[in-house]
Amino acid sequence: MIDLPTPQDLVLDSTTRGVPPGISLHDSAITSEHWSPLDGSMTLPVMTLDQSVLLANTNHFLAFAKDEGVFLAPHAKTPMMPQFAASLVARGAWGATVANVQQLSAMQEQTISDIIYASPPGGRIGASHLAAAIGRRPASKVFVFLDSVETVDALHQALARVDGACAYGLVEVGFGRTGARNLAASIAIRDAILSTKGLIALAGVATYEAAAVVKDVDHRKTFDRLFKLVEETFLSVHDAVSNDTPLIISAGGSTYFDDVIRALRPLSKKYDVPLVLRSGAIFFSDDGLYSRAFEAMAKRGFAAPIARAIRPALSLWAEIISRPEPGLAIAGFGMRDAPNDQGLPVIRRVFRNGSDIGIGGEQLPVVDKLNDQHAFIGSGAVDDVRVGDVLELGISHPCTAFQRWNAVYATDERHVVQAVLRTHFG
Question: Which InterPro entries does the UniProt entry name for this protein (predicted)?
Fold first, then answer.
C-alpha cells in the first residue's frame, strides 16, 4: 500500500477550493461526506488524485527499478507531500530528492535518512541556510549538487560554522542548465571538495539529462556526450578516494530513464555503486508532457512495458459557465488552477447531470486558451456542450499542477472523495 498524507485534524472551510460555502469540518471527517466533483456537492474547479491509479503506477515503477537493478530517490518537489515521500522509502526507495532548503526541511521532518539536494546551493546566503538545515537534523545524509569551486567554498565555510554539520558532495555535470561542462571543471570541483577535509565528503557524480535536450536535435547524440562526461568524472572521483568510500551516480530519469539506465548501468555495475534515479512525476504522470515522453519511450523499445503501464492519476474538474456565441464555450478554471507551461489541459470527458454524454476521441472539445480564471474552448464538438456541463480534464506537467493547490482530493474509482491531501509548497 501507499501511505497518502493522513488526516491532521485540519479544518476545511470554503476558503479551500472544493469546500461548499457554510461548511466547516475536520479533514478526518471528509470520507463520510461522500463528496464528488460530479454531483454538485463540491465547488468547482477542483483537482483530484485517483488513489488506485497512483498505487498501480507506484507498484509498476518500484518493481521496474528493482528488476533493472537501479535505485530511486523520487523528487519530492512534484507533490510536496512529505508523507508520500516517506512511504516510498518505506517500500524500498533509496531516498528522496529536493531542490531547495524549504523542501529539505519538509523531508527531514519525516526522518528520511538519504536526501539528494538536486541543485547547487549558491553562494553565502544559500549555503548558510543549507548548512543550518543540515545541522538541525544531522542523522539525515544530504547529498548536494556542486558545480563550481565557488559553491564548494561557500558550503565549506557555512558548514564550519555549524557544530556537527557535514554534507556529501556530488560533482554535478550537465549541459543546458547547471553542471560542470567539461572534465577539467569537474576535477577542479572534486579537488575543492577533497580540500574540505571531510566537512564535505566526496560522494559521487550527478547530472540532469533532460536539461541537455535541445529542440530539433537528436537527444541521443547529446546524451552520448553527457554520459561520457559523467563516466569520465566518475572515474576521476573514484580514483581520488579509497576503495571502501561509498559513492553514487545519480541522474534525473523521469522522461529518459531508459536512456539513463542503458548508458550508466554498466558503469554502476562495474564499480558496484548505486545508480540512483530521481524520477518523481512518473508516479502521477499526465495527459501531456509525460504522456508524450512515455509514448516516445515505448517506441525506443527498452522500457516499453513500463512506459505503457503508467497512467495519469490527476484530474481537473470544472463547469461550463458560459456559451456566449456559437463555437465558443467558457469553463470556470484558468491558469490559477491548471498548468500551461508544457501544454494546455485536455478534456477527457463531458458530464451532464452526473452522466458522461458520450463525446469521445477527436470529437471532444479542445481548450484553446487560458486566462487567470477562465478557459476558452473553441475547437472540436464545442457546440455539443451546455452551461452547467462538468468537464473532466487531464493536465500536462504534474510538478506545476500540484503547486497550484494546497488541497488535492483523493478519490476512488467512482470519483468519490476519500481523503484530502495537503501539499507543502511553503
Answer: D-amino_acid_metab_enzyme, D-ser_dehydrat-like_dom, D-ser_dehydrat-like_sf, PLP-binding_barrel
